[in-house]
Each structure stands twice: as C-alpha cells, then as structure tokens.
Amino acid sequence: MDCQKHLFSIDPEISYLNNAYRGPLLKASENAALTDLGKMRNPQELQPSDFFTETEEVRGLFAQLISAETDEIAIIPSTSYGFASALSNWTDQKGQKAITVKDEFPSGYFAVKRWAEEHQSSLEVIGEDAELSWNDKILAAIDEHTALVLISSVHWMNGYIFDLEVIGAKCQKVGACFIVDGTQSVGAKPIDVKACKIDALICATYKWLLGPYSLGLAYFGEKFEGGKPLEESWMNRTNSRNFSELTNYRQEFLPKAHKFDVGESSHFILMPILKKSLEQILQWSTEEIQHYTSDLKKYLFESLELDLFHAQSSSNHLFALPLKLGLNPQVLKSELENEKVFVSVRGQSLRVSLHLYNDQRDIQRLVSVLEKS
C-alpha cells in the first residue's frame, strides 16, 4: 500500500508520528460533519428515523471490524462510561481478586480499583519481569480466585502486545470476566472478540478509529445480556422509534447491547465523522495497516542501528523508542517539535505511533534529530 496522506488534511511541512495521542480526521470525515451541520440549519426536515439510522450503520461497521454482531455494540461517550457499564453489571463472590497491569491507563485502573474495593476483593497489579514475559506473568496470576481481568489490548505507553487470545482462554477457564480497553489498537490492529473470549471491549474513537472526541464504541458479550444500563434513556426502549407513543412507557429494551447506549446517542455531526472513518479503515484493512507500519518501524530501527529483535514484543503502529543513556525525553521532544516532528513522552521514553499517512521521509526527519542528540 502507498502512503495515504492525501486522504488527510495534515500540514505537509510536519511529521506527525503521534496518532496514539490523537488521530487526525480524514477529509471525507470533515466533509461528512459539514454536511450534517448544514442539515441542522433546518431541523424541520429531520425524521424520527434520522435519530437511529446512522448509529445502526456505525454499529454494523464496528461489529465487522472486531468480528462481532451488530446488536452486541453500544454507543458510549467515553471509555470510563464503558468500564462503568460493564463493571456495574459484574458481581462475583466477595474476597476474590481483580487483575490489571502496571501503568494501565487511569480510566481502566480507577474503574477496576473501585470494583475491587466495593466487592471486598484484592487488586493485583502485574508488572514486567526480566525473567518472565509480561504475558506469562498475567497468565500465572489468573487462577480460581480471579473474578475480573481488565487490561488494554496493547499497552498505551509502550505498545506491548498482550496475548488476548491466551489470556481470554484462561479467564474463561476460571470463570473470570475479561474486559479489554481497545483504544490503542482497534482500528490499526486485527482483533476478534470471539476468538479472544473477550466479555467487554471498550474503545474511545478519537485515536486509531480516526473519529471524534467524546464518542466511543463498546462490545458487550453474553455475560452482560441481563445487565442494567447506567441511565434510563428513552432511546434504547422497544418503542423509541414511534415518537407519538413515547409515553406509552415500555420497560423492554432493544436487543442485547443497545441497552448500554448513552442517552442522546444519535450524536449528530459527530456520528457521520465516525461512520466515514470506519468505512475507510475497513477498506484499508487492519492487516494492511500493520504491514505498512511494520515496514516503517523496521526502517526506523535499522536507521538508528537498534536491535529490532527486542522491539518484537511491541506493536508495529505504537512503540517506545529506546534512547541514549542520559537523554532527557522532554528536552528531546521539544527539539523534535522545533523541527516539526511530533511524538509523545510516556514515562522516560519517546512513544512513536505510525499510521498510513506516514512515510520514510517522516522517519528520516525523526532520525536526523535523534542522531544530533
């Protein structure tokens, strides 16, 4: 695949190697938002179906991306909302334990910490180990006392790839609930929620799904079919599409994950952005995104004469870049930005995140600054 920068409005003078911070909008998504904004000028033209049609299309596109069913997808405003929806519906015997990983993103960490406290459970935080792989340490920790495992699909700071399929199988074996934050890989890396035995997959859309801020998507599996939503929205009821009969109150929810939708889930202006981005991602395919970013990552490591073998545990699209001893990553970040090269600092490392709008010229500009430091 060739570089896809022409599909974005990115300034041609910069090298944006920071998609994990915020994904840029596609030109097609910009146009879709403007078109929907124009529709809002004449709301008399809105039909009741307009409140639902695009959300159902987005559900279907996201379901296709993660190998799920359309009715298993919920529209949420944030990952914290998704975690709360899942965890408020997962009860287990008191005195058991929950598991997460060291330096998990705060939304996930605080959600699982609250769950453990409310259920009088211990919280085990699994860190890396020089002698045992991170995946093996997680697997060793999951036992018959484990009620819940909440981790990201790849670590948000360094791109470490968690073996979701093996971890999910272990969770299923012991009866633990497996919740995954897919924000930093879904849309850029293949995932199959069924094969990985994931019970809930929670994703913000403004990173690798190239969508808007304040909008998210979530998959809820069989464990949550009898669950209760966080709020009592009219939109997720079985008679919600008949506006003249809304006060003929219906207790019944729409099928499966629909009940977990946030109120006002239509998200006019924002939803068209997300729909266009999902369509484009599916057209590219996450397999192609990984192949393309793998070539760029390899080119970067070879240019810096770094050991690519030790980079294999991290994803192709997101990884921490080893720095020379004594380098201050914050100072280095400022030097890069002076040359219009954009990355993130996470911990004591530079976090580089690549997408299809990047090319070898971007890598060369990054390398040029690093070699001077």
TrEMBL record:
Residues 51-366 form the Aminotransferase class V domain. The keyword Oxidoreductase does not apply. It comes from the Bacteria. It holds the Pfam family Aminotran_5. Gene3D superfamilies: Aspartate Aminotransferase, domain 1, Type I PLP-dependent aspartate aminotransferase-like (Major domain). The keyword Zinc does not apply. GO terms for molecular function: lyase activity. Keywords: Lyase, Pyridoxal phosphate. PANTHER family: BLR3095 PROTEIN (PTHR43586:SF15), CYSTEINE DESULFURASE (PTHR43586). This is Selenocysteine lyase/Cysteine desulfurase. It comes from Algoriphagus ornithinivorans.
